[in-house]
Amino acid sequence: MSPGAQAYLSGALDIMEKHSLLRHRVDWAVVRSKAFSQARGAQKTADTYGAIGSALYALGDGHSLFWEPQEAKERLGATADDFDGLEGRSLRGGVGYVSLPGVQGSQEAYDQYVRQGRSAVAKAGAAEACGWVVDLRADTGGNMWPMLAVVGPILGDGEVGAFVDADGNNSVWSIKHGSPYADGKPAGWSDGRPLAGSAPPVAVLTGKRTASAGEAVVVAFRGRPHTRFFGEQTFGVPTGNKPYRLSDGAVLILTEVKDADRTGRAYDAPIPPDEEIVKDPRPVARNRDEVLQAARNWLHGQAACRRP
User: Fold this and answer.
1) CB 141 within 8 A of CB 213
2) Of 228, 191, 234, 250, nearest in space to 69 by CA
């Protein structure tokens, strides 16, 4: 190997060994030996990409990944004028509905996501909704903080979760005036618009595509009073990643923490709903949304949404 390629690969492995969530379970001598064997003869940094990817896979967290320079540039620089699936509407019986897709990209994209999402919540009836449906079935992940900035008023103020690292250290997520905070520091957005009532009942919809940051939003609602989960279990990576930009523009995205809910329970596997509802595959049921209907039925049975 050239000295440059050797230093590049060694540096990537150093990051993994120092910060990986599962670092205490890994035989690092074996991981390093296999990585350097795979990259034997590497002359350029790009010649080590396969070995880095294999090492990340060997960690066993199922969530770490590697972006080559062009992919990193495209993903981290992405902007959007409009987010498909980020919408709000008012349902019958005074129930507000908001759906969140995933979001990944630039700060500009995150700011637009929060603006659009908060407008969706307002459209759904923030001033008069008796209860809420939060639909996370299309939330494939990305950055959790813009998502929490949208649903913060629905979550309610206070501690809503935490990251927990390999040594048991916690980093707390909280909501203050409807906006998210990380260890007491604002995540970057102004106060959210308050809702009509305090602690409304909330039905959270989940599915197999609910992943990563989407699962973090699920975790933030776990343990919240007057909250119930409907649909299918989540994808199964309720863990937090941190990006490390390498010298040639590639990005190593390393899983470093588990998500924990407000009760202290940590997650690292698919999260099941309270009521499992699998989509009816028959053509006659194509336009039915059994999950949403079950959520609405439950909400209409809650004291805040009962009609005389």
Assistant:
1) yes
2) 250
